[in-house]
Amino acid sequence: MSNAEDYRGHNRLIVPALSGIYTGLHGFSETLLRVLAGLTLTVHGAGKITNPFGAAGMVESLGFYPGELWSLLLSCTEFFGGILIAIGLLTRPAAFAGMIVLLVTVWFHWIVQGEGFAGAEKSILWAAILFFFVIRGANSQSVDARIGRQF
Question: How many Cβ atoms are within 10 Å of 134's Cβ, its own excluded?
């Protein structure tokens, strides 16, 4: 049973009159979250993709060698992965790669920088959003759906 079908069970809602709104906006809200997450990741990675080896020293300071390789992968994951997530193509692998990057930033802010939850909370939220798409994939409003294939 999908979430949209859950809302049709009027006895499950405190305000049954809202079931039509919830059902009608279900697919749109998921698409909006995916597109905004992808576009935001793309914008965040845009600065890195123009200098894909620029983070080599930073990633080596975290123990990722060779820094040039990891810097390139970081740049591509954020920029191109964000585009893939936004359009809904290869959504699961792109979201998985982005989630791994964000989990590393959680570790960096929480442990390496010693900022604890306050420093890592944004990365935790972003990792959770991408985890949603790793598990869920793209919905019917995606390139994956148009080509009839998902990873």
Answer: 18
Is residue 79 within a helix (H) or strand (E), and if so which, with residue range?
helix 67-87
> What are the tens digits of pLDDT across the range 17-26?
999 999 999 9
Domains of the chain, by residue range, sit at 33-147
Q: pLDDT-based confidence at 11, cuts 50/70/90?
A: low
- 112 token code pair: 């390496």
Contact 65/57 with Cβ under 8 angstroms?
no
Listed in order, strand segments (DSSP E) in 38-143 are none
Residues 6+ apart with CB under 8 A from 53: 67, 68, 71, 72
CA distance 73 to 68: 9
